[in-house]
Design brief:
alpha/beta; binds adenosine-5'-diphosphate; binds thymidine-5'-diphosphate; dTMP kinase activity
């Protein structure tokens, strides 16, 4: 495949020339593992910078919010609506201070979780009103949607077993199985409702097979976007 600079295919001025590729799914689906592999592979194909980031935690403020959101403490449980607003604050900061400037420069961004996680976890998982979450996502993102979302689908039990094997589990991972199953159902519904944007990948395959599948999907997208010939 021939490389092509993203800067050539983009327009002038304030046009967003980069691409936002999001990795989603329940805990332990393999997002982090695959993103690292995809970053190296994609960077070998294009002159455009390929950058990895995550929500929560893609900015300095976000790192603080991530700590508060994921640290387990019994004294004063975080209320569901406070949790929702903290994820939204992380996203607003991330988009304005990090994602948008890079997208204007033509960067390809690989982002670990985005708006669908809020719908799945706070909406389906916690049971907060979906239209309220959509409004909040709109406020935080100012309408910035992912160009492509790769949903690494694994059974909740498999994913949680993987994260437990990895070590200490965080506040969200400690939520009960029924919560995580509702989250999973959320991702399923989102994928059904957005077949163009969200592509499901079987995350139970071995690591190399998952990488191959992602590479195949991304190769087609890069051609479609005019980033490789
Ligand atoms: N396809 C896979 N098969 C088996 N284990 C995997 C697979 N993908 C990732 N893992 C392992 O599962 C754990 C969680 O993976 P990780 O990439 O951190 O997932 P996530 O970021 O989605 O939570 C890690 O220990 C990782 O090595
Ligand atoms: C972005 C986002 C994440 N989350 C949760 C999902 C995860 O449990 C946690 C942190 O995500 P993440 O770092 O992806 O955890 P892991 O790599 O272990 O899967 O935050 C929400 O509940 N709502 C959101 O909007």
């Amino acid at each position: 495949m021939a490389r092509r600079s993203l800067l050539i295919s983009g327009g002038e001025g304030q046009q967003m020339r980069g691409k936002l590729i999001v990795f989603e799914g329940v805990e332990g689906g393999g997002k982090t593992t695959q993103m690292q592999r995809v970053q190296v592979w994609l960077q070998s194909l294009t002159d455009a910078p390929v950058v990895m980031t995550r929500e929560p935690g893609g900015t300095l403020l976000g790192q603080e919010l991530r700590r508060l959101l994921l640290e387990y403490q019994e004294e004063e449980p975080i209320q569901d609506r406070a949790e929702l607003l903290m994820y939204a604050a992380d996203r607003a900061q991330h988009i304005e201070g990090f994602l948008k400037p890079l997208l204007y420069q033509g960067t390809i961004i690989l982002c670990d979780r985005y708006t669908d996680s809020t719908i799945a976890y706070q909406g389906y998982g916690r049971g907060l009103d979906l239209s309220l979450i959509e409004q909040l996502n709109q406020i935080a993102t100012q309408g910035l949607e992912s160009d492509l979302t790769l949903w690494l689908d694994v059974d909740v039990e498999i994913g949680l077993a993987r994260t437990r094997a990895r070590g200490k589990i965080d506040r969200m991972e400690q939520a009960n199985l029924a919560f995580h199953q509702r989250v999973q159902q959320g991702f399923q519904r989102l994928a059904e409702a957005n077949p163009e944007r969200i592509i499901k990948i079987d995350g139970t395959l071995n690591i190399d097979r998952v990488t191959e599948k992602i590479q195949l999907i991304l190769s087609q997208k890069l051609i479609e976007w005019g980033l490789i010939l």
